[in-house]
Amino acid sequence: MSEHNLAPQIAAYEREIGTLREELLKEIGHLEEKKEELSACLYVKFPALQKRLSALPPTLRTIKTDYASLRSQVRNFSDFYGTAIKEIMAGINEMSEANKDLIEKYRKEVALRRKYHEQLVELKGNIRVLCRVKPVLKEDQHEEGQTVVVTTDPNNESALTVLSKGKAKNFELDKVFHPQATQEEVFQEIEPLITSCIDGYHVCIFAYGQTGSGKTYTMEGTVENPGINQRALKHLFNEIEERKDMWTYTVSVSSVEIYNEVLRDLLSKDGEKLDIKINPDGTGQLHVPGLRVMEVKSFQHIKKVSPRVSSNRITFGTQMNQHSSRSHALLTVTVLGTDLASGAKTTGKLNLVDLAGSERVWKSGAEGERLKEAQNINRSLLALGDVIQALKAHHTHIPFRNSRLTYLLQNSLGKGNKTAMVVQVSSLESNVGETLCSLKFAQRVCKVELGPAARKIETGGHNENKLSVTISSRYHRKFSTGKTGDDISVNLA
Ligand code: ADP
Ligand code: MG
């Protein structure tokens, strides 16, 4: 292309450049203006902002510190709380351990007490024959033959001497109460049996003797001076109260009399006749269908029942005592126990028997109906003697069925049960025949035996839990086999 052709084009370019420069300068001017404006604005606002910014940190710092302190407080508190909970839990555990320990100890203690109690009762013999000599009362003084022929030995609690036809006859029983012995002293000998009953044993307590010798006095006593029955029930309810944290008990009573071999309910108004049957529950135990059984909640409650029982007894006058009772009266107390911890159950039975007069028929001057009655009484007392003797001698056959009384008491008289027979005697010469008969009866059922308890304790040489009792001389004969040099020494530390 020639130089000539380029010139206009160059000029056009130059024009265009010129326009662009103008526009650029305008734009620069614009920007300069904006810059001025902005910097003026910055100049005004920045210090305030700076000021606000510089004011922020202290607040932030406090908030930060506060937050940190709060955090540490929370951490500390939860630590503290955790430790406290741990300590409380440990305390609770320790306490319940200690509690468990205490309860366990208490249980062991109770079990041990029971075991020792049983050993003590067995040591004394599961069948004990006691004799109570009646004091000579004013009313007895009117009779003939005032001489006192029965003497007790202050140095030997088990000996008794009867003077008959110029001869002294000696008797030895488990225990002899002198005429001045109190109702409380008599009960003291019986008390361990009542405790056994609460522990689940069957217990029989009999009063035996001729009419007027004090059977009813010993069993029932008087209002001012109650006998075994009331004292036993009082003891029973006291014991139940003491054990209430570990055991609950239900106590019920029933009462029958056996008159002329007929059983009557003393808790029914009209003395309903009853029968003894084998329980249909398959246990082989005997029971009396229709017998009234009353649950009693307290000693006071039971006291209200007793007068009804007494007034319901059939009594006939004989030549020996106008108010004598010709029937056997039986008060039965059933004690059902439940161990609160284990649920284990026990059934104890306490049979309190006021027997009919033991006098021989000819002396009562009985005839006809009265003679039959007297024969029945004598027969049933004989049967009772036979049963106790057979039990003591560990015979395989025990003649329970020979009388209503022994049949009724079969479950309570058998092996593993406990019996006490209180033989009542008069000390006057006019009664010496009956006294001798009663003592012979007592002697018959009180043969010297080697009790199982004696053997059990004899082997306890290495036993740490030795029974701590002192056995008075009256029990020594229990451990004698009768042969010389054969005595068992009982070492009870
Ligand atoms: P039983 O029942 O054997 O026929 P009781 O118990 O009725 O004889 O006694 C006859 C009388 O002798 C009653 O008045 C009784 O109170 C009284 N008696 C019996 N034993 C004693 C005694 N140990 N102390 C005081 N009085 C007694
Ligand atoms: Mg009587």
TrEMBL record:
Q: Any idea where this protein resides?
A: Cell junction, Adherens junction; Cytoplasm, Cytoskeleton, Microtubule organizing center, Centrosome; Cytoplasmic vesicle membrane
Q: Which GO terms describe its biological process?
A: microtubule-based movement; system development
Any one GO MF term held by the record is:
ATP binding
- SUPFAM superfamilies hit by this protein: P-loop containing nucleoside triphosphate hydrolases
Which GO CC annotations does the UniProt entry carry?
Answer: adherens junction; centrosome; cytoplasmic vesicle membrane; kinesin complex; microtubule
Q: Where do the annotations place ATP binding?
A: 209-216
Record membrane topology = Peripheral membrane protein
Give all residue intervals belonging to the Kinesin motor domain.
126-448
**Which InterPro entries does the entry mention?**
Kinesin-like_fam, Kinesin_motor_CS, Kinesin_motor_dom, Kinesin_motor_dom_sf, P-loop_NTPase
Q: Which SMART domains match?
A: KISc
Task: Give the function comment from the record.
Answer: Minus-end microtubule-dependent motor protein. Involved in apically targeted transport. Required for zonula adherens maintenance.
Q: Which family does it belong to?
A: Belongs to the TRAFAC class myosin-kinesin ATPase superfamily. Kinesin family.
This protein is called Kinesin-like protein
The species this protein was found in: Sinocyclocheilus rhinocerous
> Which lineage is the organism of this entry classified under, starting from the top rank?
Eukaryota, Metazoa, Chordata, Craniata, Vertebrata
